[in-house]
Amino acid sequence: MSLSLIGIIFVQGYWIKNTVQSNEEQFSIAAKQMLINVVKDLESNEIDKYYFELASVADSTKPFRKQLSELFQVKKEDYSSEYFVYSNSLVEEEYKISSQFLSDQNDSIFFKKITSKKLATKISREDNLDPNSLGLSAEERYQRINRIVDAEKYLLIDVVKEMAAELPIHKRVDTTEIRTLIDENISKWDIKSDYEFGIFSNGLNTKVRSADFKLNSPSTYGIPVFGYKDKASDYQLFVNFEDKNQQILSSIALMGILSILFTLVIVLAFSTAISQLFKQRQISQIKSDFINNMTHEFKTPIATINLALDSVKNPKIAENPDAISRYMNMIREENKRMHAQVENVLRISKLEKNELDIKKEKQSLHELIHKAINHVDLIVENREGYIKSHLEASQYTILANETHLTNVIVNMLDNAIKYSPKSPKIDIYTEVVKHFVVLSIKDQGSGMSKSTQKKIFQKFYREHTGDIHNVKGHGLGLAYVKQIVEDHQGEISVYSEKGQGSTFTIKLPLIS
């Protein structure tokens, strides 16, 4: 079962790890593709910005009408709605154009117009109208067909790129344009993270950047921008996605939470099962100890009673009234002892079921302490010990059941006597703390470990000392004490150190 649980946890962790990696790769692909589109748009916008201005200048200086008849023939078929445009030679023309809009260093730019050789273009009309009915001249019709040939177009683009490369980056693009393009493309790729961006030149800052951009962030992606021909660009556009991890994790949040939740349920069920197994084992051990102790506790008085009865049957003893009286008292005391053991077990059972009727009356705690001391005083004297009272509480009136609370104090004193290997030395203290009277019983006995202190108020629990019968009892005394104290709305606690003795403290509410 343990291996199965470990396997489930491992599989869940492996699945979550792979899913996160997969989502991170998808995010990176989307981010890089978005950057590619942004860079394309930036370069396209720059070309458009200068290209049409350059083309308009070229148009204004081009001897279009004069050269048209030499370069092209526009032939009309008599019975057809199709037109053919022919070019039968390669013509090269040079133009000198003002470059103020591109560079302050050059006063003009030379570029060439190239017309492809042997070019034929077929244009079909879908109606049967006469071309002349449109009111267009041959020149105008040609301009509609092909404003600028491809070779000239690419030449103009090269001119724009070459001359724009000499401008500072902040003259070519600004942060508003970049942010607009990123916003347009980021939604297309379903990227929902906030971002910061910046353009760097050979690793150095430029003016084109957002305020909070950080280059060394692990969520930063970069791509060259404004490249020219095959030369490596000096500029790179970087975008830092601040909420990258949040977006990656949010995509698997629901499944991840459910997976973790179900795993925790399995772990909890497994832990509960293991805990129950240990508890059952502990209960079994406690019951076994209880039976052994009860057997021992009953075996001694039964043996004593049998011996007393055998003695009474002896004719010599039968003639001695004093001896008979002594043996009869012995039988009576042992019988009381067994009866007390049975009553103790039944009392605990009734307390747990709330069947024990405990009537409370106004009592003096100090008087109850003196009564309890009288019950054990002879035992302490026989062992050459002492019980000293330090009853310093100025108020000690409580609402209690005289019999049960006296039994509580007697039980605690009895424990202090039993667990004192040498002569028992017991001190009893009382004091007032706010609205409570506190009773402390301190001994100098064998003490107990920390783990034992947590369990001594459990029913049937007894600390193992190697010899299970070296201290008589069956683990019900302190369980009974705790039940009675709690029924009196009080609290009981213990402080002990091994070999240093123990201090039991009872806290009970005062009444006026």
From TrEMBL:
SMART domains, sorted: HATPase_c (SM00387), HisKA (SM00388)
Q: Which GO terms describe its cellular component?
A: plasma membrane
- Please give the catalytic activity noted in the UniProt record: ATP + protein L-histidine = ADP + protein N-phospho-L-histidine
**PROSITE patterns, from UniProt?**
HIS_KIN (PS50109)
The record's annotation in Pfam families points to: HATPase_c, HisKA
Q: Which Gene3D superfamilies does the record match to this protein?
A: 1.10.287.130, Histidine kinase-like ATPase, C-terminal domain (3.30.565.10)
**What InterPro entries has UniProt attached to this entry?**
BphY/WalK/GraS-like (IPR050351), HATPase_C_sf (IPR036890), HATPase_dom (IPR003594), His_kinase_dom (IPR005467), HisK_dim/P_dom (IPR003661), HisK_dim/P_sf (IPR036097), Sig_transdc_His_kin-like_C (IPR004358)
Q: Where does the signal sequence lie?
A: none
The GO terms describing molecular function are:
phosphoprotein phosphatase activity; phosphorelay sensor kinase activity
Q: What is its EC number?
A: 2.7.13.3
Q: Keywords in alphabetical order, please.
A: Kinase, Membrane, Phosphoprotein, Transferase, Transmembrane, Transmembrane helix, Two-component regulatory system
Instruction: Please state every residue range assigned to the domain named Histidine kinase.
Output: 293-512
Query: One biological-process term from Gene Ontology?
Result: cellular response to phosphate starvation
Where do transmembrane segments lie in this chain?
Answer: 252-278
Q: What is this protein called?
A: histidine kinase
Q: What is the lineage of its organism?
A: Bacteria, Pseudomonadati, Bacteroidota, Flavobacteriia, Flavobacteriales
